[in-house]
Design brief:
By secondary structure, the chain is of the alpha+beta class. It has six helices and 14 strands. It has two domains: 141 residues, Nucleoside Triphosphate Pyrophosphohydrolase (Alpha-Beta Complex), CATH 3.90.79.10; 142 residues, Nucleoside Triphosphate Pyrophosphohydrolase (Alpha-Beta Complex). It is elongated, with a radius of gyration of 25 Å.
Length: 292
């Protein structure tokens, strides 16, 4: 009796989540006659690095340029009665699954490869995937069960700059979380950088002016899950050192950052901030209370 041919395949895939959606590829009729969605990804070429392979495959199947994590999970599926190209084989699939993300503002997914195993790509609701409304491969179910949102903690320094009854604010661009809201000028503290040095640097980068850092007013923090400027979904914890600062007489702040997370800077009346006429983040209110 002839033995069943053994076939082993190593492939790399990415779990790409954006807010409450996941990026999936629909398998073509060449693979299955039924509607079935899976993670974007595919087989490794001989000698190909898995991280390079998954980025290549995601682009071929969705048209999007993804970044992926340094680490991955590995799933193994043994299918001794599988069918491949019209014949029965003893199949063993090893799947390397990375966390992935795509830049904000990326175009809608589209299939790039011709005559491949994918016929469509789309962002689909996570809730529909989890409750079975969207039919998916076992790999999607396994990977989502193990999926954990990346945790990130960030230390930043911010400036409370007052001019009479006005407060200097910076507006968050479309690249940042809470786009369109106003916050204090400032930003992240680099490794080994003194917070006051970081604050002066960030204010100059955002507002084009130098500030004198006077004193620490308060320490504020925020915790939420959202999409980072990179496009990666993060469980974010921000720790904010808020300083009282002053501008030199005659200096006028202006937005100078290009393609960053700030698209405008301006003085706003304290009354408008407190009344809600100007949408601001909580750190602004905390700074005003501490500086009163």
């Amino acid at each position: 009796m002839p033995t069943t041919p053994k076939r082993q395949r190593v492939a790399a895939y990415a779990v790409i989540v954006r807010d409450d959606q996941i990026l999936l590829s629909r398998l073509s009729p060449v693979v299955t006659s039924e509607e079935l969605w899976t993670l974007p990804g595919g087989g490794l070429d001989h000698g190909e690095d898995p991280r390079h392979a998954v980025v290549r495959e995601v682009h071929e199947e969705t048209g999007l340029d993804a970044e992926v994590s340094d680490t991955a999970r590995v799933y193994s599926a043994h299918m001794p009665q599988a069918w491949r190209s019209g014949r029965r084989v003893d199949a063993h699939a090893v799947r390397i699954v990375y966390e992935g993300w795509v830049p904000p503002g990326s175009p809608e997914p589209r299939v790039v490869e011709v005559d491949g195993s994918t016929m469509a790509a789309a962002w689909l609701p996570l809730s529909d995937v989890r409750d079975g409304t969207v039919p998916v491969t076992p790999l999607v179910t396994e990977a989502l069960a193990d999926h954990v949102t990346v945790r990130r903690q960030r230390l930043a320094a911010y400036a409370l700059v007052r001019r009479d009854d006005d407060v200097l604010l910076a507006r968050i661009s479309r690249l940042g979380h809470h786009a369109g809201s106003w916050t204090l000028p400032g930003g992240g503290v680099d490794h080994g950088e003194h917070p006051e040095t970081a604050l002066a640097r960030e204010v100059e980068e955002e507002c084009g002016v130098a500030v004198s850092v006077d004193r620490l007013l308060t320490v504020h923090d925020t915790h939420f899950t959202g999409t980072a400027p990179t496009g990666r979904l993060e469980d974010f914890h921000g720790i904010h050192l808020v300083y009282a600062c002053t501008l030199a007489a005659g200096d006028e702040p202006r937005a100078v950052e290009v393609d960053g997370t700030t698209d405008d800077v301006a003085f706003h009346a304290l009354l408008d901030i407190e009344s809600g006429a100007v949408p601001v983040l909580d750190v602004v209110h905390a700074a005003i209370r501490a500086g009163a």
